[in-house]
């Protein structure tokens, strides 16, 4: 799994989420990339990203996040950056930042994160962003990059939806989601986020709680999956009725992404 990860100095959680066995073959490698934001990217980072031939970037962040931390791009980047205007997380904060309010312990952090996942698939602006994501994958050539702020919650949900629609085994869906907890320089990523979260909410938040906020847990994705099933019965029906991913679009995704 760690072979999927690209190590950059100022971009965290950068990895290939292709290559998994799917319903009709195997997801292509080198065309599906995911990461956190690129606001802290170094020139060497940007050059490394440029080598991947990315033609489409899907930014799942909200307007406030993009304004606070604009993503840097290589001077020669001429691809399309897609996003839906508004706040995809229901506020100006990323999910892990939102979950930090009023918590102190790791158990409280996990409970807050799990609660956020109940409604995450149904947030209006995120739905519009996910619709752009699936449309781009079904219609645009070249490699794509999917990212949010930390590249773990909104991005993890989106990647998991794609995997399931293409028939990736549930074990691989979850393994890819949980790779956030191992990808790249974890200490630097968690330390930077911890400083920001404590500045916002106070120094009482424990180190263990920060780790929980900045990581992912199987219960989070299971919660979103159950929430989708309770409302729509299946991921396929949710994707079709909410995101416009009908049979024709699923076929287009298979044609472009499965070898």
From TrEMBL:
Pfam families: Y_phosphatase3. Signal peptide: none annotated. One of its GO terms (molecular function) is protein tyrosine phosphatase activity. Coiled coil: none annotated. Keywords: Hydrolase. SUPFAM superfamilies: (Phosphotyrosine protein) phosphatases II (SSF52799). It is an enzyme of class 3 (hydrolase). Gene3D superfamilies: Protein tyrosine phosphatase superfamily. Its EC number is 3.1.3.48. It comes from the Bacteria. Belongs to the protein-tyrosine phosphatase family. This is Tyrosine-protein phosphatase. It comes from Sphingomonas jeddahensis.
């Amino acid at each position: 799994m760690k072979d999927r990860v690209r190590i950059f100095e100022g971009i965290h959680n950068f990895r290939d989420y292709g290559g998994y066995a799917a319903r009709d073959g195997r997801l292509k490698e080198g065309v599906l990339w995911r990461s956190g934001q690129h606001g802290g990217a170094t020139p060497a980072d940007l050059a490394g990203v440029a080598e991947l031939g990315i033609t489409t970037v899907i930014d799942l962040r909200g307007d406030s996040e993009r304004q606070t931390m604009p993503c840097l791009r290589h001077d020669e980047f001429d691809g399309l950056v897609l996003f839906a205007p508004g706040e995809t997380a229901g506020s100006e904060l990323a999910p892990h930042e939102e979950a930090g309010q009023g918590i102190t312990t790791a158990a409280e952090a996990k409970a807050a994160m799990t609660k956020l996942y109940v409604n995450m698939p149904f947030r209006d602006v995120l739905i519009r962003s996910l619709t752009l994501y699936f449309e781009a994958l079904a219609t645009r050539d070249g490699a794509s990059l999917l990212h949010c702020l930390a590249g773990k919650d909104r991005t993890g949900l989106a990647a998991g939806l794609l995997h399931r629609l293409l028939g990736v085994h549930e074990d691989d869906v979850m393994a890819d989601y949980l790779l956030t907890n191992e990808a790249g320089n974890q200490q630097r990523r968690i330390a930077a986020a911890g400083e920001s979260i404590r500045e916002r909410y106070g120094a009482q938040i424990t180190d263990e709680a920060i780790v929980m906020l900045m990581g992912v847990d199987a219960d989070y994705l299971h919660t979103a999956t159950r929430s989708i099933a309770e409302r729509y019965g299946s991921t396929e029906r949710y994707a079709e009725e909410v995101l416009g991913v009908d049979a024709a679009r699923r076929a287009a995704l298979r044609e472009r992404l499965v070898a």
